[in-house]
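lol so apparently i was supposed to do this last week
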Amino acid sequence: MMKHKRLVTSLLTSLAIVTTLPISATVFQAPVVAKTTAKATVISKIKKTPDLNPTSSVRSFSSSTYQRYQSTFNKEYNVDQMSLTGVFRQHHAWVYTASPQLRKYLTVSMKTWNHALGSAVFKTGTSHHYTIRVGFGTGGKDGSLWDGLYKTNKLWINKSHFYSNDYILTVLGAVSGRKVTKAKTAADKAAYQNYYRKFWEATITHELGHSLGLDHSPYQDDIMYAQSGERSGSIKYSWTTAKKGNGTFAGFTNVLSERDVNRAKLTKLLGYW
Ligand SMILES: [Zn+2]
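anyway here it is w/ zinc ion bound
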């Protein structure tokens, strides 16, 4: 209360000075104060967007609004800060891998995000200068808990899956719901090789999505798709069955959906990258 009163007094004092000056000498400079939108307005705008898709109508609030309602945005769009502070500097991260095998895929995955976001978010790092390191990992306790994993500033790819000739058949079988047999013809072999390449590109793109603060999605056409999700602080609802989306399976196309891209644009506003 006291502070407010003093502010009013000083405003009156300055006004009194201003009135004594000739009009031409008065320069009014409004203080730059970003307004925080009322909670009801934020919620109502969020409710009007498609499921898990922060379209442009919820991407033009002030930074104080994103700060104030951070947990609401997190929960409504399955996002959260997942990278350590300093991984992104002025909206860029430097990504490095010592593996020439992984580098091929990583380069494509970085381009996938950079192209969609319209800037070089992921830059190629060196062994001396990087903020995200990409390498091989074990795949968890039983070796097949994950294909890729992102944590704080490290990205791992399951080494045994990556080097297995049959693993891609298992994944294709799981996605199609049919038994997928080994390639018999040259055409089949080429098709499987293509699936293999896209699968690992998509896996790294997915993990880079985590670095940007994107959690999982139930939509199969999202790069951030996961088979299941548990409702939490940054997950809107639980799921155990996939949602078809546009019918494609991003895990085999390495194509970002509009939802993926809009969520990444939102996490930038939330300050996660
Ligand atoms: Zn994931």
